[in-house]
């Protein structure tokens, strides 16, 4: 217990909260560690990974390498090993450890425990067999493994995972980096939301918080990119992008199918307005698609990516839609374009106010100006916006 107390005290030092409801006390975290037996001996992890053998390496990010291992009881694990030279990785590591301490859901990756041994700091997760969604979805030679049933189940599973994080976990958690590479698939193709290095706790009494921008190009909501307004609707926007990527098999950030469309969202919306939404569908789904479900999911994706965050549904609403056969859905308005301003016919008081608590002074892993573990992930101050091109149609990034 002495080691547990010492580690957990060091673990939560970087996290200070503006509201007593946002975090758990040191005593609570110590009880969690003791009750759930979340501490692993370093020797156990050395043995499980065969001394972190290169052959067991699953990948590497800004935080450091990840190794596959097998415990004596037969459980397969993934061990995230903090790089001693990565300051950004340390922040993300600590953030992830704190936020996942009491999170447990079928569609959220399971943090089994922690380990600290001298300068070594490690996080231990369940091993997820089928890797990340992007490795299957955006590689033509593996895309056919994702038939429509699997894609639909992934959409439903990610929706349920986000609903849990937003409404049903001990605190409201905004992930901030929902994307295909952060969705892991287990041996039964159950999706698991992963990588909480940039996630934030959200105060219950606020409509949004003002913070520095962190996320991945192509997935970030426009009000967040342009104004630093962070709310659960930013995750909803990212989810909508993911839904349209799953249906089309196309990556939004590198979309280049039509000169008449700025991105995947714009292309999907234009086809939808023409009554040709099924043209969005990945051709490999032709033999397995349930057209009614595909059409519904396209509409959900467009509703989630609307420029006005107030028009986007909550994840609760999305889960309800997916669990039923709705007779009619709202008509989506034009999607927001990450990095460009959007117009609204009204300006709700919630967004015109600066009442949201600024978390800048109590920053977590996301608030450093650096590249994260994905080459497309970025952090930047919210006051810096992309230049518009001379036609005023789309942002230009230098």
Automatic annotation (TrEMBL):
Q: Which UniProt keywords apply?
A: ATP-binding, Kinase, Nucleotide-binding, Transferase
Q: Where is this region: Disordered?
A: 328-398
PROSITE patterns assigned: PROTEIN_KINASE_DOM, PROTEIN_KINASE_ST
Instruction: Decide whether keyword Transferase is in the record.
Output: yes
Tell me where the transmembrane regions lie.
none
- Top-level taxonomic group: Eukaryota
Stretches with biased composition (Low complexity): 349-385
Residue ranges of coiled coil: none
InterPro entries, A to Z: CR_Ser/Thr_kinase, Kinase-like_dom_sf, Prot_kinase_dom, Ser-Thr/Tyr_kinase_cat_dom, Ser/Thr_kinase_AS
Q: Where is the Protein kinase domain?
A: 52-328
A molecular function (GO) held by this record is:
protein kinase activity
This protein's record includes keyword Ribonucleoprotein: no
Give the protein name, as stated in the record: Cysteine-rich receptor-like protein kinase 43
Biological source species: Ziziphus jujuba
High-level lineage: Eukaryota, Viridiplantae, Streptophyta, Embryophyta, Tracheophyta
